[in-house]
Specification:
The chain is of the alpha+beta class. The protein is about 35% helix and about 20% strand. Strands 1-2-4-3 form a four-stranded antiparallel sheet, with helices on one face. The N and C termini lie far apart (about 60 Å). Its main location: nucleus.
Length: about 130
């Protein structure tokens, strides 16, 4: 099999010849853009889609993976008005996700520390 073991195909080149995110404005739908995010998959696409759908200004948010062997996702976002652009909605969604993931990490770390303390303590009822 001719598959690289270190997933070299998922790395962006160091010379910035491939941008991480590129934007295509939708010509048929008002206040809509399609963002192509390189080297990402369903993990980021689904989280970002769901976060954007919680925003009252976002009418539509969806993503797709054009091909399973192509390491990129296409995220489409449409907002209600021009006061909040799709790019601003995505930026706000990313910041909200970062906050939620920070809370998740903190809760995980505190639970892990608590479990380690419990297992380090001697069992009750033994001298």
């Amino acid at each position: 099999m001719n598959k690289p073991d270190d997933f070299e195909c998922w790395r962006l080149p160091d010379d910035d010849s491939v941008p991480k995110v590129s934007m295509i404005k939708d010509q048929k739908v008002a206040n809509a853009v399609a963002l192509v995010i390189e080297r990402e998959d369903h993990t980021l696409g689904n989280m970002l889609r769901m976060q954007l759908l919680e925003d009252d200004e976002v009418i539509f948010s969806g993503y797709r993976v054009p091909h399973p062997l192509e390491p990129a996702i296409q995220l489409k976002v449409q907002t209600r008005s021009e006061q909040v652009t799709p790019v601003q909605a995505v930026q706000a969604g990313v910041q909200a996700l970062i906050g939620e993931l920070d809370v998740l990490r903190d809760r995980f770390d505190s639970s892990l520390a608590q479990k380690r303390r419990e297992f380090a303590a001697p069992p009750r009822g033994f001298p």
